[in-house]
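Now for a concrete sample entry.
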Amino acid sequence: MECAGLGAVTPSIPAGSIARDGTFVAGQVQARIGGTSATVVSAALKAGPVGVYVLHIIVPADAPPGGSVPLEIRVGERVSAMVSIAIQ
C-alpha cells in the first residue's frame, strides 16, 4: 500500500528530497487488519515521488473477509486514521 506521514527515514534525507531505493522508515511499523496483527515486510519511501511511503504487508490468514475491513498503521506511538480495505 502507499501512504504518507510515516516520519523519519534511514538513511536520513532532507525534507522535500527525492528518495532513492533503500530509504526505510526509522521507527517500528506495525499494522492491524480487522483487529488482527499483520506482518509488515517492509516500510520505505518510494523512489521518485516526494513523501510517498510504500508498505508491504501480509494479510493474516485469520483476517475477516469483507468489502470494508479496517486497516490501522502504527509507527512508534503514532496511530493512523482508520481506513478500509477489501479482503476476499
